Amino acid sequence: MIMNQSLNQKKRKNLLSRKLFLVGFLFSLLLLQACSNAGGEGTGAQPTSKAELTGAEGNVKAVLNYGYIGTNDLNLPGGAEGWGLHKGIIQEELKKHGITEVKLTGFPNGPDLTESLISGRLDLGSLGDTPAIIAYASGAKTRLITQGSTNSIGYLIGKKGGPQSLSELKGKTIAIQKGSFMHRYVVGLLNEAGVTDVKLVHMLIPDAKAALARGDVDAMTNNANQGALEQIEDGFIHLDDASKHPDLRGSSATVASEEYLASFSDFPKVWNEAREKALADLKQHEEEYYEFIAKLQGQSVDVVKITNPISEIKKEPFTDEGLKLLDGTKNFLVDENLAKKNFEMNDWVLK
C-alpha cells in the first residue's frame, strides 16, 4: 500500500514536471514571436525596415531639396507641383515615405538650377527641357522622371520703332537667356528664316526688358509667364512666337540626381503619384488655382487663364507626343553644338 502511494506520488511529480516544461516551452515560443513582430516581421502590419516603407535601398533623407524656375513672394513653382506644395498635398504624401520637409529654392534660369543639382545642393529640380538636356549631355548625373507640360511658348519681342519682321533682324542684337528653351526657339527660328547675321547676347529677362526699353538691344526672347503679352500690349513689336512653330515649343522637365535615386529608387513613383493627387485636387478648384498662379506671377487672372491653361498640365509623367518633342529638341541642340554629345533618350528617361 505504502509502495503504491509512493509510486503514484512519483508519477504525479513526473507529470507535473512535464507540464511545467511544456508551458515554459510554449511561453518561449510566444516571446520569440512577439520579439520578431516588434522587429517588423510576422503579421506585415509593420514594415521590416525603413527600406521596406520607402522602397529604397538605403536611408531616405528627411529633407528633400527641390529647385524650380522663378522667384516670387510665395516661394513656390506653378503647375500641379506648385499647387500640391501650396496645399500641402505633396508634403503629406512624402511624409508616408520618411520625407518630413521639402526645402524649396527658386532660380532665375535653368543653367543655375542644374549647377546646383550637379553640385549636390539639390536632389530634384523642375526646369525647361533645353537646360536639362544640355546638362545631361555635358555629363550631369540626372534622370528625367516627369515631363509635366509640352507647350512652353517662346516669344520674340522687338523694341518700339525697331525691326518689324524677322528679315529686318539681320545685323541686329537679340537678348536671349542662354541655355533656356527660348534660346533653342530663337536659334531654330532664325535658321528657318535664313537670318544668320545676328548677335545673341545673354541677359536674364528683367535685364533684357530694361535693355529693350532703352533701345540697347533690338529684340529679346521672353515667355508669357514673365510678361511677353504685357510687353506686346505696351507697344513692343511681336515679331514671332513658338505657337506658329510646333517643333520649336518647349516642355518642362523634372529631373532627379542619380545619387538621390540610389538611396530612394521608388522616388519617381512616389513623386508622380503625389503630383497626380495634386492635379486631381487642382481640377476641383480651378478658379482658386488661377488666382494662385496670378499671385505667383504678378499677373491678372484673365491673363493666366490664357498663358497657363489647366488643360496643358499633363496627368501622365510621359506621353508619346512629349517624348517626340523632347527627342527633337535634343537632336537640334546636338546639331547646333549647344549640347556637347548625343545620347539615347531612353538612357535618360526613367519610366
Written overview of the protein:
The protein has helices spanning 2-38, 50-54, 79-87, 89-95, 110-119, 129-137, 181-193, 205-214, 228-233, 258-263, 267-283, 286-297, 301-307, 320-335, 345-348, and strands at residues 63-69, 101-107, 124-128, 142-146, 154-158, 173-176, 199-202, 219-223, 237-241, 252-257. It has 351 residues and is α/β, with parallel strands linked by helices. The relative contact order is 0.15. Residues 1-57 have low confidence and may be disordered.
What's the main sheet like?
A: 5 strands, mixed
Helix content: 40-55%
Tell me, briefly, the overall form: globular
Radius of gyration: 30 Å
Strand pairing plus helix content: what structural class? alpha/beta
Number of strands: 10
Write the layout of secondary structure elements.
Elements: H1 2-38, H2 50-54, E1 63-69, H3 79-87, H4 89-95, E2 101-107, H5 110-119, E3 124-128, H6 129-137, E4 142-146, E5 154-158, E6 173-176, H7 181-193, E7 199-202, H8 205-214, E8 219-223, H9 228-233, E9 237-241, E10 252-257, H10 258-263, H11 267-283, H12 286-297, H13 301-307, H14 320-335, H15 345-348
Give a quick precis of the structure.
With 351 residues, the chain is an alpha/beta fold.
Which key features would you list for this structure?
globular; 5-stranded mixed beta sheet; disordered N terminus; alpha/beta; 10 strands; single chain; 351 residues
